[in-house]
């Protein structure tokens, strides 16, 4: 009995810790495309991109599970911390490239080159799944490249889809989303977070002006 307790104690702590640091919810998946939800795995309420949420292999697996896209690959090729670090590098590179694109700026030449290199490498290792129409590219199963390629191909699929024309960035934070509305349309990644923050800030500003007047 004592043995069981000794073994269960650290296990419980580990699980609790993992849960604490990787709390994804429906609010983490408001981008409208899984590639955008991946780019939105930061928790900042501003444009800083300093609050990374993809902190560990467990966080990545948890994100995949909540997204409903967890594949068998998670069991066959479990991600390592190096994979997660590479994903964060690619996520930030893609974020810079797409941020420039949505604000009609040309991305930095180094970023364009690196972004293209990622896609070419991933495609060079991928194969087409011809059982599906249109056939998607499937990432290599080679462990050293699998995870980065899987997300590079996800992003590549998005930027070449008709959905990419609807890409918008939240006016308050750095998150992306698809704007399906007409006219000016949606301005916030999520009305209940950034939309509300904007309303509160605007209200405060109006009150300050009135107080001064
Ligand atoms: Zn936002």
CA-CA gap between termini: 73 Å
The tally of domains stands at 1
Rg for CA atoms: 20 Å
Low-confidence stretches: 1-20
Structure ligands: zinc ion
The CATH top-level class label: Mainly Alpha
Which shape, going by the Cα principal axes?
A: globular
CATH homologous superfamily annotation: Jann2411-like domain
- Major β-sheet, in short? 2 strands, antiparallel
What is the CATH-assigned architecture?
Answer: Orthogonal Bundle
Give, in order, the helices and strands: HHHHHHEEHEEH
Helix content range of the residues, please? 55-70%
Structural class: mainly alpha
Please, what is the average pLDDT?
A: 87
Number of strands: 4
Strand line-up across the major sheet: 1-2
If you consult CATH, what is the topology?
Answer: Jann2411-like fold
Domain Zinc finger CGNR: 167-207
Organism: Leisingera methylohalidivorans DSM 14336
Protein name: Zinc finger CGNR domain-containing protein
Pfam families: ABATE (PF07336), zf-CGNR (PF11706)
Essential attributes:
single chain, mainly alpha, Jann2411-like fold, globular, disordered N terminus, binds zinc ion, Zinc finger CGNR domain-containing protein, Znf_CGNR, ABATE_dom_sf, ABATE
Topology:
Elements (H helix, E strand, L loop, with lengths): L1 H20 L12 H6 L17 H11 L5 H4 L4 H22 L6 H17 L1 E2 L8 E2 L4 H17 L7 E3 L6 E3 L12 H22 L1
Antiparallel strand pairs: 1-2, 3-4
The structure holds zinc ion.
Zinc ion binds next to loops.
Organism: Leisingera methylohalidivorans DSM 14336
Pfam families: ABATE, zf-CGNR
InterPro entries: ABATE, ABATE_dom_sf, Znf_CGNR
């Amino acid at each position: 009995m004592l043995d069981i307790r000794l073994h269960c104690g650290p296990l419980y702590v580990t699980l609790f810790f993992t849960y604490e640091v990787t709390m994804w919810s429906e609010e983490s998946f408001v981008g409208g495309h899984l590639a955008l939800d991946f780019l939105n795995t930061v928790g900042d309420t501003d444009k800083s991109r300093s609050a990374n949420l993809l902190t560990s292999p467990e966080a990545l697996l948890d994100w995949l599970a909540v997204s409903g896209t967890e594949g068998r690959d998670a069991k066959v090729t479990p991600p390592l911390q190096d994979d997660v670090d590479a994903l964060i590098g690619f996520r930030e590179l893609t974020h810079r490239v797409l941020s420039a694109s949505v604000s009609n700026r040309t991305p930095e030449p180094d970023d364009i080159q690196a972004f293209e290199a990622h896609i070419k490498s991933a495609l060079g290792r991928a194969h087409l799944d011809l059982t599906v129409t249109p056939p998607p590219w499937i990432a290599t199963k080679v462990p050293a490249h699998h995870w980065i390629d899987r997300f590079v191909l996800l992003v590549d699929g998005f930027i070449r889809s008709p959905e990419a024309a609807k890409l918008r960035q939240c006016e308050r934070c750095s998150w992306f989303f698809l704007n399906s509305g007409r006219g000016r349309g949606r301005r916030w990644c999520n009305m209940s977070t950034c939309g509300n923050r904007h309303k509160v800030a605007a209200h405060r500003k109006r009150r300050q002006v009135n107080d001064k007047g």
